[in-house]
Design a protein that fits this description.
single chain, Aminoglycoside 3'-phosphotransferase, Chain: A, domain 2, six-stranded antiparallel sheet, five-stranded parallel sheet, about 45% helix, about 15% strand
Amino acid sequence: MTRNSAISPENTVSAGPQAEIVDFLNNPETYGSGDVVERIETHAAYVFLVGPDAFKIKRAVRYDYLDYSTLSRRYHALQRELELNSPAAPSIYRDVVAITREADGHLAFDGRGDAVEWVLRMNHFRAEDELVNVAERGDLDIPLATALGRSIALYHAMAEPRPGKPGSILIRQILDELGREFSGLTDVFASDDIRTFVDRSRDRLAQTRGLLDARTIAGHVRRCHGDLHLRNIVLIDGEPVPFDALEFDEELGTCDILYDLAFLLMDLHHRKLDDAANAAFNAYLQAKTDDAQLAGLAALPLFLGVRAAISAMVAAQTARARGGDPDADAEGRRYLAEACAALAPAAPALVAIGGLSGTGKTTLATSLAPRLGPVPGAVHLRSDTLRKRMLGVSAETRLPDSAYSSEMSAKVYARLEEQTSAVLNAGHAVIVDAVYLAPAERHAIAARARALGVPFCGLWLEAPRDVLVSRVEARRGDASDADARVVAMQVGRSTGDVDWTRVDASGRAETTREMALSALEPLTGPDAGSG
């Protein structure tokens, strides 16, 4: 229950008036349970952990960006925190109650006397379940990252649209503020790096202004989380749950949903968790029922760059508030370098992966996607999941044979090409994963790349029939419905002349990946395999 924010107050109201409240909440006798009380302090709150419970009060402080200096302000801030967080995290957030002054002068929870402070009551979760700690243990794996992406997609689906201020103005205001802040931080950041960020971010804003405003009208600017990084996501019953949404500034909390997502993606990238970032990114996109987010990817480099730049600014301001911190300054410089890299021009590319069922197309695509293109890597489009989405069923639902008719398959491949074009037109790399048994299907996807003027590489995976059968029979909970019968049918069909790069996929997935990366080196560069 911590927030990494710079402590740079214009004015600070003394914590003295709250000393009695803090003592009351810090006293085990207050709760009558005999549990040890653990106190956590942030720049704006005190949190008291007592057995299964957690109690949070706002500190009586006033900074340039928030004001909790009065009891009324603290009450409304806690109520807003409850309103924002309880829909997504009902198992954490409970209610807001008063600490009252009773007739004999003692303090009590929700007594008959006047309220002297307000407390947000929550259920206490284990610190080890916060995703930042899960990640530091090395346990933020691909399945968990996939669940994380789906969780954020659901969070954004529940968020309230805010169609007021155009999205381009929201970003421009942030860029203006960053420019002012960086101008006073030249002792930390090189002037050339600041100039690169400012120039590239302005260029990106100019290129995407119309898109950002259109997304506002379409309802993609919402009352989002606003502070979506690993410290503010926790595992509850094994599922990632966002908490501690930014409550003190409605304007800062109102943003494009992809800008909200960008904070999480940049946090994962900064922690060198690029595989997890790509898995969360693709799970998020796959959870959306429309293709608006594919076109919106044109704004993602801007969003990522701005999020990283804000982190750079906060790191430098934190160091200054501490009277100097070389490590925090170095962290800030690393964030600014990541911001500039995210904003750098990048060419899209298309990779298609074909082969019979069981050759490992999806496994390969998943491992290649983080290594193709800038952060967070390539979009992964898969025919199996698209087919089921088009038919309105879950990815795990088994379809009848009629769903695999030539007519339905033609619709799936046509839709794949449309989505591929949307991603490429947004300037983003894409990997398409389908059987591509018919020559016409392979020619069509390659022609799509030529028409858009982007680099293309087709990979054709091959493995012996017994390996294919063994793999498809071992599948559980996968979007593919292929079994041994399907493999037999595919083996009996002619693939025609395959002019894609053939890759032996009979061995370990890591070996297949390395061979594929060698074929993709013109697109990815020689260092892609080191990620």
